[in-house]
Amino acid sequence: MLGCVRIATVRQMAEVITKEESDGRSYVRRAMNKLAELGLAETNGKDGKHSIWNLTPAGQKALADGNELPPRPKAGTGAKAVLAGFGPHGVAVTDMILAFGGRKHLTDWQVEVNHAIKETGLTFNTDAVLALPTKTSEVCLFELDNGTMSQARVAKEVWDYERYAGHRVWEGARGTIGGTFPFWQRHRYTRSQTFPRLHVVLAGKEEHLLDNRLQALADDVEGIAVAVWVNTLPRLQRGESWYEIGVDDPDRRRRRYPEPAGR
User: Fold this and answer.
1) CB 3.0 to 4.6 Å from 7: which of 27, 78, 217, 254, for a disulfide?
2) What is the pLDDT of residue 77?
């Protein structure tokens, strides 16, 4: 589990490895202490009263050597994020993953996935990406706000996805007419027919405040030309429906963003 989500508490790990309605926290705590004695796992901070665990570099290497997960050479252990104060956010991301059915397909998740376009300087990290193909897309994208960002900042992060989806690249041999194509479809999600849907999850505040932030986000991104679904973490954990606040519209994106010049 830690190889996928990077950081987790004993409660979260017990939720994954024990039977439903069972409390396996004591078992997990003993197992993690044993891994710590072997130098494979460590704890660097807390979320409230709960220790946050992550693999050590040796633990990651042992996992890779065992071929338990797809190779992820650039993935960090999560220790730096915890030490920098981002532990509660990472724990909330793990809660989001588990609430979305992560127990069933845990190894299909990656966290802190960078999306960047060098030509425009646009770069951002997606909190979590689920490689669970649908009929039109090879992944689903997830952003979580743990109540620490302003509403304007949350909206800006969502609009960054439209800017990413709207960027086009010119292709064609020298001397030919050539044409332009979406950057993401040529260089990132090559098996997707549509830009992956973005799921935004709001957490970290009382539920009525989260509902207010949900409505504010819907207003702030009105007219966005990528598919966006939003939910609060409590609603997601109860299995309640998502709210659609953005619809994929490649034609509108093409009108909004300038075409690249040919050679």
Assistant:
1) 78
2) 79
